[in-house]
């Protein structure tokens, strides 16, 4: 290999690369406070970074200064032509905030700027008028008028009126407001607009994505990791799919449901901190908090009684005793409609405490807006179908204190709007599950530079108690994430080197070896462990290798799943496969279990999912290192279970367009052979000999050809099946399929009959096609693995356990009693476990310490089972001794 294995592992440490410029402190506008200066310097040095700062810390002024400094440095370095074009994309209603801050940076005109600071700014600007930022608002491409900094709304980019790829540097202000445009899909599509080939502006052609990118937004929701991953993709740090694989465990039943691995949590947040700066107050960066004390937050919950007399029914017709708004979207909507009048009445009572106060009235539904307008005639409403200029005028008027009471949806006004100057009271006419909208709405008022105690009234019904509990739970989780990120920033500061040094500690493992009767198990990285083994010392290699970047099994950088992409994975395999060839006896077999992988549409660039032929690259890798390829066994899988994981083969989608449908993903057992020393007769140096008295000609013929005659049995009629269980139906259809000429239409008809009776499952495939051919195994019991024992013990289950059937057949066919079977990726030690039970010597290596410990227990139990004599063995031994 070109580099040492340990150097290869060290190169895996994932810290965001820096592509920006070091900015001298003297070049930063003197009006920026110390924490703002540090953040701008950090963001400029990174080139593509995110500022996740608490509400009121001055993100707007930092964005303007970041764009100005980045364009100037890029122009000086020859990275861009001329002075460059910068773009800031912001929510509706914040145009005035940017205009105010840009003017402050130029003139120092601001209530909080002292005369001394204005004098210092004048001296700083005297010789360099180009330091004064000019921010111009535009909505269309044709409004671009020469180099400079431009401001636009998200709607202009979303609707295609303004192309962001015309700019050299771009900043997204309060980017999480994109979720109000329709959710995750729109969020990702919007991010994609900033990458790819760029268009021509003033006869200049540029290529690649916008080179310098910034996200400036409040602390992201801890309840939606996808938001953070989308920012990472926008900044070019890591693709969403790669980040999912690296840090999260997937729900094996549902696609895109992620839970962070407990052992990956610290690494994940350190990785995020390498490209996203989380700051809750200036002291997080070592500066004074003077002037940045948050006011008290007075949260008041108001429960409205619920009429349970007509609580409705379950799907099966069972009467409900209580209404429960948390039971589903439909139940929540019904509760909102039924309780609207009572909630509005409560709102009117609360307003009566101080009728002249400035207030914002938050709501979620159009019906609620109409009810507010009827109850409060003077209220000014903001809603989606309004003209954008009218909307913006209302937002600015309320922000400036010209409008006393404003009604709006958190999804529309919750991002970017600063209402703290004239308002400190918010009333929520209702509550919901969207925590992001809720917390953003709270912090339109509760933010730095707010001088009054902030009052928040939340109106909900008795049936919405669980909704309230969920909001409070998420709020606590949000505070936990903030504390976690604050801890990391305080510990490591802005030092990438310190973070990288900490992460390299999770590399390698202290070797542990456990041996017993006919087994040897090692807790270690399989590459150095296999290197330490003797030449020609293994009789059979049987393993399920990691499926590239699909999963990570441990927090260790030695983990083969801890790789960036397929190429990177096979680079690590290049260190292992030559060692496997060396330790395998000449002429013997390496049986490698693999499965192809789905490539998400976002990664293909084709707009639809495709298949990565992992098994093809596996064949190329092993044969490239000297193995001979002998063929493959195909192991059929359940297409319905697979679709529940990937949504790739959805029935509804195929009805819309059948051209999208591919096939279910089988697994493969690839057979490789190490060339024998003597190639004249092709026999192994130590052949796998079979006794003909045990391995009959008949068995050989069936193994070699695998065809079976029909028994004349038939499938039961739908009427006969009606009272059978799913287990009985599965076995009957399997037996029928193997004993009859296959009839596709009859297969479909049987399924349709079962569907009509409500007996066709949606979570697994009941009527699976069976195969006669020996190279296709359709009778592998999917759930017969050591995970069953793990589940019974309440322990962590393995992500991809090998099935017993598969291991048993390979061990019986390609090894002999007493021989050594080696698995370099032992996992729960299925291979040595089954090898010991089959009278072989089991040997395996496993990196994950928890898996290793559990696997040792299983193999030890197998060894005891083999060595324990039966009753008849004991009788025979006693008789022999007596004789």
From TrEMBL:
Short name of one Pfam family: N6_N4_Mtase
Metal-binding as UniProt keyword: no
Keyword Cell cycle: no
Top-level division of the source organism's lineage: Bacteria
One example of a Gene Ontology biological process annotation: methylation
Keywords: Methyltransferase, Transferase
Recorded GO MF terms: DNA binding; N-methyltransferase activity
Ranges where the DNA methylase N-4/N-6 domain occurs: 538-851
Name of this protein: DNA methylase N-4/N-6 domain-containing protein
